[in-house]
Design a protein that fits this description.
Strand content: 25-35%
Number of strands: 8
CATH superfamily: Transcriptional regulator MraZ domain
Structural class: alpha+beta
Number of helices: 5
Radius of gyration: 16 Å
Distance between the termini: 25 Å
CATH architecture: 3-Layer(aba) Sandwich
Number of domains: 1
Largest sheet: 6 strands, antiparallel
Shape: globular
CATH topology: Chemotaxis protein chec
Helix content: 25-40%
């Protein structure tokens, strides 16, 4: 079942906290939120239970002893992962390393994507979307 969809604009406050959209909070409930780097220049976030399922399914079979590629995948996922608790206002704090790697400024956009959501810097999202539209128009997507 797809749990997250839609897009919502929000702003970081002076303490690098951002409110998770109300529709997403309804799905998350009181679970922790697992935030990590994405391969696409944004952050991706999962309710902890969804992350646990994904990790078991996709990462448990990696061969960290004999495969440098598998070790790199593990580092990407586990090295960038943070478990965040929402405060009473439904906000999570973004870590400085996440802000830096995702190029996040004051304005962000939340994108619901099936069992997770992405957090994009608004300008980066607009640039990504413009590039995607160009590829769509040229038949590359």
């Amino acid at each position: 079942m797809y749990k997250f969809w839609g897009q919502y604009k929000h702003s970081l406050d002076s303490k690098n906290r951002v409110a998770i959209p109300a529709k997403f909070r309804e799905v998350i409930g009181r679970e922790k939120v697992v935030v990590m780097e994405s391969f696409d220049g944004c952050l991706q976030a999962f309710p902890e239970s969804e992350w646990d399922k994904l990790a078991e399914k996709k990462l448990s079979g990696l061969d960290y002893i004999d495969s440098a590629e598998d070790r790199a995948i593990e580092r990407k996922f586990f090295g960038s992962m943070e478990k965040c608790e929402m405060d009473k206002q439904g906000r999570i704090g973004l870590k400085p390393n996440h802000i830096k790697v995702a190029g996040i400024g004051k304005e962000v956009i939340f994108m619901g994507v099936r069992n997770r959501f992405e957090i994009w810097d608004l300008k980066r999202w607009n640039a990504y979307r413009a590039e995607t539209k160009k590829r769509e128009q040229s038949g590359q997507v």
